[in-house]
Amino acid sequence: MEWKLHAIGREGGREGEAALAIVVMGVSGTGKTTLATALARALACPMLEGDTYHSAANVAKMRDGHPLSDEDRWPWLDRLGGALGDAARERGRAVAACSALRRAYRERLGAASGLRPAFVLLALDHDTIARRMATRSGHYMPVALLDSQLATLEPPTADERALTLDSTRPPDELVAAVRAWLELG
Prior knowledge:
There is one protein chain. The protein is an alpha/beta fold. The chain has a single domain, classed as Rossmann fold, CATH 3.40.50. The protein contains 7 helices and 6 strands, in the order ββαβααβαβααβα. A 6-stranded mixed β-sheet has the order 1-6-5-2-4-3, with helices on both faces. It is globular and about 40 Å long.
């Protein structure tokens, strides 16, 4: 797969807005946690793992192979968005790993954070994602839910503050691309 750097809505946040919230998004198995961790390390800021904000009921539902409903997701997105906004305001920047598959979910994260997050979509083909999911251990998301996640995915549109990257690239290259897009040096 060829590396694609696709930037949408490159402009920064509102005038005078010091806090920066970045959400690394995509379906399970694309490398969200890996990139979010590397990005947070490079920016010397907190990294929030979206999976840890799920309720026990949500985790059990997914572990049993059932996709979450929007009603399941709203409280999760509110908890994660609130924590992301708090961390970004406290430390100036914060990064979260979160699927954020639909526009409504991204809008909910933004509303809960009180900021206008920058979204980084990690794109990858179905077979590679399935292979990654099948080989990782200790994660509750089964490969059986991959198709439902891909069907739910609404890639960011031109009016969203988003960047799409090919997640087959090494994390250091992805971090450099995000830093360049956000003009973070």
